[in-house]
């Protein structure tokens, strides 16, 4: 591996370790000891909050970690904290950045500093959780300073430098530290960090208090006042000047940091560029691969080099012009595209910089590569150099812009359908009868013995990639036993979606649509209304017997709550079905608002200073009841007849009256730390302990459909908790108070539900 940094005298004691980029980002944040981190999990940045939570449980920092309802909320939390003058930290990736995007210009436009790590990842759609720079490029016009880190060492160092730059009186802007998801974020490398956090805190300096903030009632200020154009242009001019000044401040801070750490971070990392005739411009980790190829080609007498920026906002135009003064051909490799622009962002910014130098004759080629985490090998870097060498020898670029690594399709490789499509009568048994009582208007459901429904085909084919013991698909399939006829199903991002649709394969036998967590209900409501309107206009000739179902889980009713409520208030004819595994399991078992109080997750750890989740679980069915939709229910696979009857009711209401919401409790042995064989026992114990009561709310009337007290089957809450490793600490004597508080809340909700059952107007 080529040497990355020139060594200078080290003045502060450091420790050598072997860490990943995410670990170093978290470690830098802990050493700085920020006041607030508002966060929401998204792969691959999720680890940062998890690591900080583990550190907090061990008492290693005092950062207040605030779990948001989505990335938009996390950005709001961070902004609210920064206007108080607090030091604020965040981390996100891909669609998380997109969801918070409208908040980012507010942060920079009102000049409140903070630091956010952008662990770069491909933006949907289609969904791909691996790394490219499509998210990074969306941040270029937000007004934030943007630093880029090639290695875990750089992640640590630039995070420390970032706060000092952000708070500098000539800047006062938020800063992004961007590094490559799953390359830099997860791959461990040899690193050094300061042994004493006081060294870091002394370098960063005291929190500035002489700028306006909202913390002192004696000095009231107005933040974000409406402006007309004359004032807005002045505001943006000042912001623009501050961003350009950040380039000079970066150089100043980098010099100071080099004296302290022995590691230098120039504006451009130039490798063998002194006499290079051909060069590559690459952001972040790909540059490290290319440096090895430079050594190989240099040994053959070929004058090549690599340019990689440490900062791209402000864009280092002057440094680019200087670096390319004698370069005959430059290939700009970009892990993202600017569709339709004949090259992505860095390509055009480099070309623009070179336009200011009338003597420059550098031929610039652009290649989009490495999308969706596609690896960049030494052979690829060598191919890039060869393209640039060819352009140098010809005196022009035969193809200035292209993609690299794409392959043409072949007709003989066309996918063959593995399962014949099933529809209509295939999913009708005629054995389920739903009738409406003329007097009470309540629905009556008759179902056959369960064995009679086993002949009904499954909606999801075998071969999905769910974990052993996963409760999602038994729960969903049991629910679908009560649904007659065709379905159109929308899946939120989450475990159920991810494990059934890995291109080019799909486990779904009927139409499946995917959309993101925050917008699934709105998307399906558009699908329903379009279907009905096309039918009304007689533009499609298909059966009316189609039920629209949205399947959500893994936090989808947190980040997607607003969309769900809006859909319910409009009362579209569809079913919202939530599988509740009490966490965000698809991103690594983080806390969701449905996680019970005291339960351990990867972001609510158990240790010296905390005891699992600090607040009670969200009562989502009751929230949906408040929207006045015609039918709300709870169910679980452990009570199959109850669930099938409710599914049949749900279909009737969705077809005849409007929106239905149902919540299914399902198990997750991997992250609940439970034995697979106890799946049904755990769900039954949750019901019998009254933690998860089975009931329905039909046109506003609440009915408990299974009462463990009446059947003398009620058990203590501890009988349910004992099955799960995530809750074992609650059964210890030192946590008795926490268990009692949890028990009291379960009892309060159960008693309230019984009163609602007894009184139809409640």
UniProtKB/TrEMBL annotation:
Domain Thiamine pyrophosphate enzyme TPP-binding: 518-659
Pfam families: PFOR_II (PF17147), POR_N (PF01855), TPP_enzyme_C (PF02775)
Gene Ontology MF term list: 4 iron, 4 sulfur cluster binding; oxidoreductase activity; thiamine pyrophosphate binding
GO BP annotations listed: response to oxidative stress
Keywords, in A-Z order: 4Fe-4S, Electron transport, Iron, Iron-sulfur, Metal-binding, Oxidoreductase, Pyruvate, Transport
Identification of the protein by name: Pyruvate synthase
InterPro entries named in the record: PFOR_II, Pyruvate:ferred/Flavod_OxRd, Pyrv_Fd/Flavodoxin_OxRdtase_N, THDP-binding, TPP_enzyme_TPP-bd, Transketo_C/PFOR_II
CDD domains: TPP_PYR_PFOR_IOR-alpha_like
UniProt similarity note: Belongs to the pyruvate:ferredoxin/flavodoxin oxidoreductase family.
Every Pyruvate:ferredoxin oxidoreductase core domain range: 276-380
Domain Pyruvate flavodoxin/ferredoxin oxidoreductase pyrimidine binding: 28-253
């Amino acid at each position: 591996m080529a040497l990355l940094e020139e060594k200078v005298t080290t003045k502060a004691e450091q420790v050598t370790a072997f860490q990943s980029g995410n670990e170093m980002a978290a470690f830098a944040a802990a050493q700085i000891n920020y006041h607030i981190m508002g966060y929401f999990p998204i792969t691959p940045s999720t680890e940062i909050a998890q690591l900080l939570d583990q550190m907090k449980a061990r008492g290693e920092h005092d950062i207040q970690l605030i779990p948001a309802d989505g990335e938009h909320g996390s950005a709001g939390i961070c902004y609210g904290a920064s206007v108080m003058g607090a030091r604020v930290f965040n981390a996100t990736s891909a669609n998380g950045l997109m969801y918070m995007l409208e908040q980012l210009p507010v942060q920079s436009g009102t000049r409140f500093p903070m630091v956010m790590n952008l662990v770069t990842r491909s933006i949907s759609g289609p969904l791909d959780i691996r790394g490219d720079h499509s998210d990074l490029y969306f941040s270029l016009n937000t007004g934030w300073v943007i630093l880029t880190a090639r290695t875990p060492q750089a992640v640590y160092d630039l995070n420390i430098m970032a706060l000092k730059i952000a708070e500098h009186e000539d800047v006062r802007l938020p800063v992004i530290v961007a590094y490559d998801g799953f390359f830099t974020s997860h791959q461990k490398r040899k690193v050094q960090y300061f042994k004493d956090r006081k060294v870091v805190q002394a370098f960063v300096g005291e929190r500035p208090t002489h700028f306006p903030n909202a913390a002192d009632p004696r000095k009231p200020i107005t933040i974000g006042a409406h402006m007309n154009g004359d004032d807005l242009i002045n505001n943006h001019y000042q912001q623009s000047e501050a961003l350009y000044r950040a380039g000079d401040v970066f150089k100043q801070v980098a010099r100071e940091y080099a004296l302290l750490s022995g590691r230098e971070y120039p504006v451009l990392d130039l490798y063998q560029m002194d006499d290079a005739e051909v060069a590559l411009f690459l952001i972040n980790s790909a540059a490290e691969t290319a440096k090895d190829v430079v050594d190989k080609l240099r040994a053959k007498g070929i004058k090549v080099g690599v340019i990689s920026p440490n900062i791209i906002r402000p864009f280092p135009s002057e440094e680019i012009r200087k670096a390319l003064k004698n370069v005959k051909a430059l290939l700009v490799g970009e892990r993202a595209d600017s569709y339709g622009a004949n090259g992505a962002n860095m390509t055009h910014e480099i070309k623009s910089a070179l336009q200011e130098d009338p003597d420059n004759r550098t031929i610039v080629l652009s290649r989009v590569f490495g999308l969706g985490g596609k690896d960049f090998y030494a052979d690829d870097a060598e191919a890039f150099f060869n393209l640039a060498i060819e352009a140098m020898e010809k005196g022009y670029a035969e193809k200035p812009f292209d993609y690299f690594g794409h392959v043409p399709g072949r007709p003989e490789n066309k996918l063959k359908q593995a399962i014949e499509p099933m529809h209509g009568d295939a999913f009708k048994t005629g054995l389920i009868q739903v009738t409406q009582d003329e007097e009470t208007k309540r629905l009556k459901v008759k179902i056959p013995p369960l064995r009679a429904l086993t002949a009904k085909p499954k909606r999801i084919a075998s071969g999905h990639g769910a974990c052993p013991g996963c409760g999602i698909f038994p729960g969903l399939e049991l629910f679908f036993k009560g649904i007659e006829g065709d379905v159109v199903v929308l899946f939120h991002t989450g475990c159920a979606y991810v494990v059934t649709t890995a291109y080019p394969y799909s486990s779904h036998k009927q139409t499946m649509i995917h959309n993101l967590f925050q917008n699934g209900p709105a998307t399906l409501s558009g699908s329903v209304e379009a279907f009905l309107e096309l039918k009304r206009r007689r533009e499609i000739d298909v059966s009316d017997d189609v039920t629209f179902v949205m399947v959500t889980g893994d936090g989808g009713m947190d980040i997607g709550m607003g969309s769900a409520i809006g859909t319910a208030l409009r009362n579209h004819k569809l079913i919202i079905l939530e599988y509740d595994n009490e966490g965000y399991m698809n991103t690594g078992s983080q806390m969701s608002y449905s996680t019970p109080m005291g339960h351990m997750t990867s972001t609510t750890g158990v240790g010296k200073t905390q005891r699992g989740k600090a607040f009670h679980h969200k009562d989502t069915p009751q929230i949906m009841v408040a929207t006045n939709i015609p039918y709300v229910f709870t169910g679980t696979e452990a009570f199959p007849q109850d669930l099938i009857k409710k599914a049949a009711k749900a279909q009737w209401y969705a077809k005849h009256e409007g929106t239905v919401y149902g919540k299914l409790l399902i198990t997750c042995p991997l992250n609940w730390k439970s034995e697979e064989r106890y799946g049904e026992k755990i769900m039954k114990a949750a019901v019998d302990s009254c933690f998860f009561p089975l009931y329905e709310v039909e046109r506003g009337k609440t009915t408990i459909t299974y009462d463990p007290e009446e059947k003398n089957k009620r058990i203590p809450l501890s009988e349910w908790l004992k099955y799960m490793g995530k809750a074992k600490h609650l059964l210890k004597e030192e946590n008795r108070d926490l268990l009692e508080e949890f028990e009291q809340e379960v009892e309060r909700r159960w008693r309230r539900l019984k009163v609602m059952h007894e009184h139809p107007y409640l």
